[in-house]
Write a structure and sequence with these properties.
Layout (H helix, E strand, L loop, with lengths): L8 H4 L2 H13 L4 H11 L7 H9 L3 H19 L2 E11 L25 H14 L3 E6 L8 H13 L1 E2 L2 E2 L2 E5 L5 H9 L5 E2 L7 H7 L8 H5 L1 H7 L5 E4 L7 H19 L5 E3 L20 H14 L4 E4 L5 H8 L5 E3 L30 H10 L3 E3 L3 H4 L4 H10 L3 H18 L3 H15 L5 H15 L8
Parallel strand pairs: 1-2, 1-10, 1-11, 2-5, 6-7, 7-8, 8-9, 9-10
Antiparallel strand pairs: 3-4
Helix pairs in contact: 2-4, 2-12, 3-5, 4-12, 4-13, 5-13, 6-7, 15-19, 18-19, 18-20
Length: 472
């Protein structure tokens, strides 16, 4: 039976409940009265249940769909304003003992060269990322207890935080590694990580076990219950995600929201972020072999409905998606994107040779970070490199209480402007710098508190004179 308060994976992600939800949403996808009732509830900005959101996802009425998109865009503005947080992935190792059939790191792939960064190579990669302007990283590694033990991950985190190059600093490291123990999550917390991220890949247990035929990741319950262990280990912020294309998207959508409901019910804090990756071609992986792929319109509808259902969460879209697709979903709920990304082990410091490539997936948006920053500003978004909430202890329930009340914008907007100013001073091309300076000048008027506005003006002048790292 479905029980969001249970700590057992098959009870808080209950298959029968999902199937009932799919049947209910199919039955009511053209029920205009019900859909309008759900939209009215959504306007309260307190979220929706997985069943209510599934009805919106299945809605076929064009006018109602436009209302769904408009509401998603407004909710995103209400909670996150026009800020877009920017980060980059850093792949540490592609050694992996799992047999995941959709990932080129699977253990049976003898074509891809296996690589593991030394600490000196980590340092070089970090300097290259700092020279681009990045302040926030998401580290990635395959699951291999011999080559990538938790001690290696912790050493890499320590190295990343230790590198201070010119005006560059990585101020927050988020971690995307395999499900692990409570004790190891405590070690990650003590290392000062930001968000612990783990994609479920698929919530359909039978499909999950087929897609992960060998290795420790085969254990569906251990993987699905990882976020509970992470929170038990003291990690406040966790990030969910599914890999769309492996299973029916409607099933994954319901399971994802049920997982968010579970975290709220048990820990009082929902997911800090939700990622929405789609399966892509990579090395020996043919994405077309998976028959549950979704088109761009369906993808956009999923983003909009997640934003309405979980209004407080940060939503992430990576360089898996094209510029055109990313531009579309930015308006519908996305609040974080990667830029200038490499999905190989190494590659920021120097390009990989063609015969030794190690990308986890093909990148569809190959623009430089500066091009991404300029593109965002041309659409009147504020590219933000802010990490203030992590470092000020505004995590977990403290962040969520501020976010749900709308108060998070009182510090996020100024922090975004100041970190953008740092980027413009240190890294931007002249055209980008000119555009950014005009944007900052305009956005200062959107700080309602005159005292705060004055302080920000003072800080901006100090940044121009060479000082760094101001924050509210």
């Amino acid at each position: 039976m479905y029980n969001p308060q249970s700590l057992k994976a098959e009870e808080f992600i209950d298959h029968d409940e999902i199937m009932d939800t799919l049947a209910y949403s199919e039955q009511h996808k053209n029920d205009i009265t019900l859909i309008r009732q759900i939209l009215e509830k959504a306007k309260e900005r307190k979220g929706l249940s997985h069943k209510e959101a599934s009805v919106l996802l299945m809605c076929e009425d064009p006018d109602l769909n436009q209302e769904i998109y408009a509401l998603a865009e407004q909710i995103k503005k209400d909670f996150y304003g026009n800020r877009i947080v920017i980060f980059a992935p850093l792949y540490l190792s592609n050694y992996c003992v799992n047999g995941c059939v959709y990932c080129p790191y699977h253990t049976a792939n003898h074509h891809m060269p296996r690589k593991k960064l030394t600490q000196e190579e980590v340092r070089r990669e970090v300097i290259a990322l700092q020279d681009m302007g990045h302040k926030r990283l998401a580290i990635e590694a395959g699951e291999d207890p011999v080559n990538n033990p938790i001690e290696y991950i912790l050493e890499c985190i320590d190295t990343i935080y230790s590198v201070h190059h010119k005006n560059g600093d990585i101020r927050r490291v988020n971690v995307n590694i395999a499900a692990t123990t409570v004790d190891n999550y405590r070690k990650l917390r003590d290392a000062g990580i930001g968000t612990y991220i783990l994609f479920q890949e698929t919530y359909h247990k039978e499909s999950y076990e087929k897609l992960h035929p060998t290795g420790p990741k085969h254990d569906y319950a251990y993987h699905t219950e990882a976020m509970d262990r992470a929170m038990e280990g003291g990690i406040d912020d966790v990030g969910l995600g599914v890999l769309f294309g492996l299973e029916l998207y409607r099933y994954e959508f319901a399971g994802l929201l049920m997982h968010a409901e579970h975290l709220e019910a048990v820990h009082g804090v929902g997911p800090h972020t939700i990622s929405v990756p789609r399966i892509r071609h990579a090395d020996d992986i043919d994405a077309s072999a998976f028959d549950n792929g979704i088109d761009d319109d369906t993808f956009a509808k999923i983003v909009a409905c997640i934003r309405i259902a979980v209004p407080y969460t940060g939503m992430i879209v990576s360089t898996r998606e094209s510029q055109a697709c990313r531009e579309k979903v930015l308006h519908l709920g996305i609040s974080q994107i990667s830029g200038g990304s490499k999905t190989s082990v190494g590659g920021y410091y120097e390009a990989e040779p063609e015969d030794a490539r190690s990308e986890q997936f093909d990148v569809n948006d190959n623009r430089t970070l500066d091009e991404v920053v300029r593109w965002l500003m041309e659409m009147d978004y504020i590219p933000s490199f802010c990490t203030a909430c992590y470092r000020a202890g505004r995590t977990g329930d403290r962040f969520m209480s501020l976010c749900k009340s709308g108060q998070i914008q009182n510090c996020c907007h100024p922090n975004a402007l100041m970190t953008l100013k740092e980027y413009l001073e240190d890294y931007a091309a002249p055209e980008t710098a000119a555009l950014g300076s005009a944007l900052i000048e305009k956005e200062l008027d959107n700080i309602p508190n005159l005292k705060v506005r004055g302080i920000v003006n003072d800080y901006l002048r100090e940044i121009h004179s060479g000082k760094r790292d101001f924050r509210f």
